[in-house]
Recover the amino acids of this structure.
């Protein structure tokens, strides 16, 4: 069963008009990823100015990153920036998000996932 967080966050990435998700789409495109073909494993607030995320590209590459922005400002997410963009394709099986990442790969293999 695919994690509801994976389903929800991936849907938000693809369809949400909120500043955070719009900006994340732009940033992923700049990294060469197609937001309509990218699966979001997680995006978790880790501090007052950043969130840690993990995505899977259409090609099955797994990336982790930190998204910095002024969370207190009304439109702070519009100027969000990516930092620590790291390809963890060979090491994602270790760590706290291994199960959720495996679930996200399951979502990728389902016919409706990339529709």
């Amino acid at each position: 069963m695919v994690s509801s967080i994976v389903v929800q966050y991936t849907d938000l990435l693809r369809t949400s008009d909120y500043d955070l998700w719009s900006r994340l789409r732009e940033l992923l495109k700049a990294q060469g990823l197609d937001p309509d073909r990218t699966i979001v494993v997680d995006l978790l607030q880790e501090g007052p100015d950043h969130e840690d995320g993990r995505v899977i590209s259409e090609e099955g590459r797994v990336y982790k990153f930190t998204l910095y922005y002024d969370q207190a400002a009304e439109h702070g997410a519009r100027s969000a920036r990516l930092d620590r963009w790291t390809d963890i394709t060979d090491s994602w099986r270790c760590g706290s998000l291994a199960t959720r990442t495996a679930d996200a790969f399951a979502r990728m293999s389902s016919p409706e996932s990339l529709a």
Remarks:
- The mean pLDDT is 91.
- Residues 4-15 form the longest helix (12 residues).
- The chain has three helices and four strands.
